[in-house]
Amino acid sequence: MYSYRIQKHDLVFKKPAKTSRNIFKKRTIYLIHLTDLKTGKTGIGEAAPLHLLSIDDVPNYEQILIEKLDEFCQIENVDELELFHYPSIKFGIETAVLGTKAGDKGELYYTPFTRGEASIPVNGLVWMNDVDAMLNEALTKIEAGFDVIKFKVGALDFDEECRMIEKIRLKYSTFKLTIRLDANGAFLADEAALQLKELCRFEIHSIEQPIKANNWDAMQRLCSESKIDIALDEELIGVKIGQDGEKMLRYIKPQYIILKPNLIGGLKNADHWISLANKNNIAWWATSALESNIGLNAIAQWVSQYPTTLHQGLGTGGLFENNFTTKLRLFKGKMTFDL
Question: Is residue 260 among the annotated active site residues?
Fold first, then answer.
C-alpha cells in the first residue's frame, strides 16, 4: 500500500536556456513523495512535462497527476495505468517506486557507479546565444575538462554558426575534441542535406534531429546519404514502441537514438528502445530533459546499468539557481556518485 503527496516547484534558470524552439527561464516540476506504508520508506520521483515538447504539456496536468496517483495507490502497478499520453507521470511514479526500495546511500540501482567505482562520461552543452557567447562558453567548458562538446544550432544564421564551429575546430583537432550538434528539428527538409554537407568539413561526430519529427522519408534519406551520423531525438516522442518503434528504426536507419525517459514514457520504455536499437545495430545515449537533480539522479543511475562508453547528456544540473542537493558530482567531464 502507498500514500503520496505532491510538491510543486519552479526551477529558475541561472540564465535563459535557448533552443531553436523555445527560451526557458523557469521550469515547473512536480515531485512525487511516495511512501510505502508497509516499510514506511519514502521515495521521490519527478514528473515534469517540458513546454512545447512533451505530449503531456497540458493545462490540467496537476489534476491528471493526482488522478493517476490515486489510481496507482489502488492497483499498485504503474504498468497497469493508462499513461501513454502522460510519459512524464510514468517516469515520476516509476522512479518514486524505485526510491521506496533504494539502499541506505540512495542507490536506485546497484552498479559500479553507485558504489563509487566508476564514472559516467558527460558532454558539455553549449546553449544557443550570440556566436561570441557560444564560442566563449565552449572554450570555458573545454578548459574545464570536457572533451565532448554539444552545440545547440539552428536558430542563428547558418554561416555564423559554421564560422563559430570552425574556430573551435581550428583550435582543437578531432583527436582532442569531439563535437556534437543538436538542431532540435530546425533545418528545413529540402535544405538539410546541403547544410550537413557544409558541416561535414568540421568533422562532426553527430547531429541530433536535423529536421522536424514525423517526416520519415526525408529523415531516412538524410541518414543514408549524410556523412555526419544522425541521432533521432524528438522522433521518439509519442511513438508507441511495441507498435511502431522497430518499424521506425528499420525504415529510417539512424546511427543513434537519444533517450529522454521523461519524454518517452519512463525507464522501462527506455529499456525497450535500447533493446530495439541493439537489435538493429543502432547506438544510443541518454540526455536529460531539464529535470531537477531528482530526475537527473534517477537517469544517471539507470544509465550506469549499461556498459556504454558514449558520453551522456547529463550535465544540466548546474543550470538552475534553486536545484536540490544531490550525490551526483561533475568534474572534468566525468559524473560520479558521492558515497
Answer: yes
